Amino acid sequence: MDAARALENFAASRNGERRGTPVGFPRLHEKGKVTPSFRLRNRTTAGRSPLSHRIRFSNPSHLRLPKFGPVKVFGPTRKVRRLIDAGRFHIYSATLRQRAGRWTVSLTRVAAELHQAERSRSDRHAVPVGVDRGIISLCVAADANGVPFEIFEGVKTLKQAQTVLKKSNQALARTKPGSKGHQRARSRLARRHRKVVNTRQHLVHQVSKTLVDRAQVLVIENLNVADMLRNSHLARSISDAAMGELSRQILYKAKWHGVEVRVADRFFPSSKTCSGCGAVKSDLNLSTRTYTCDACDLVIDRDLNAAINLARWQPKEPTAEEPLASTRIVLLSTA
Ligand SMILES: [Zn+2]
Questions:
Q1: Residue 233: band (very low, low, confident or very high) from pLDDT cuts 50, 70, 90
Q2: How far apart are the CA of 31 and the centre of ligand 1, in A?
Q3: Is 91 exposed, middle or buried (0-12, 13-18, 19+ CB in 10 A)?
Q4: Cβ partners under 8 Å of residue 212, min gap 6
Q5: Whether residue 150 lies in the annotated active site
Q6: pTM for the whole structure
Q7: In angstroms, what is the span from residue 299 Cα to ligand 1's centroid?
Q8: CB within 8 Å of 37: residues ≥ 6 apart
Q9: pLDDT digits (tens, 9 = 90+) for 60-105
Q10: 8 belongs to the catalytic site
């Protein structure tokens, strides 16, 4: 299935039907260079008793996988099992993935639509809310009237983690490749990386849920992922990765909750525009944390200014609806 999709992307890219970076002919994964992962399919038709499924919960704490048998699951499974029993959750596949010595099982299903009351809540913020990535905080949200909506902190944990990461990196560099010490240092670094990723993921989930719960219209930046990946500076790459993940989560959660998301085009100068008078600065250094307008003497926090500008951004033409993606529920398990 993955090979077919890769071939489709390749063909579409060559025919000019696919925009963005050109996609090459699919290659085989190289051992040791990619995350080890594989997928097991639940070859059972929907509607049949879950007891006959190849992938199923054999009891509250064990997920049964073909060939593997029961695998212990950490964390509560009650919600998932209830949905399965009610026939509202059909497991299509289980993806097993290894990250830093630990295996994770992800279950894929098609999401049931949320209740209408949840999709059109009346207590949401009526004016559009702009979300800008912060330099100090994870992101800053503000509405079109210039009212700060929320500042999501939480980069502190990631900052602390960065110091630890840097130390582990240096420790690894001091060891001799191929030695026992090198292996130990490498797995320690991988574990710390995993912790950073988990912390960030948790934080980003909280932020994206808060945003779709409280706003009716969200405006986000169109981030250039390829540019972000080229950035090797640790602090920046961590916050960029969080922002990329935040937009991804906002997009799918907004669909569930009936929230409109507008994606500002990449060349919209959200940081350089003055939210007071609309003047655009020709140059704004990344280290400048406060925006000072030369035209109207407005002094405002840089991220807040950008968020207000995003909130006021208007699409030139209506954006096309994208198909609803399938969702994953992640359960943790040790190897
Ligand atoms: Zn101004």
A1: low
A2: 55
A3: buried
A4: 218, 250, 253, 254, 256, 257, 259
A5: no
A6: 0.71
A7: 9
A8: 95, 96, 97, 98
A9: 999 999 888 999 988 889 988 898 888 778 888 899 988 777 888 8
A10: no
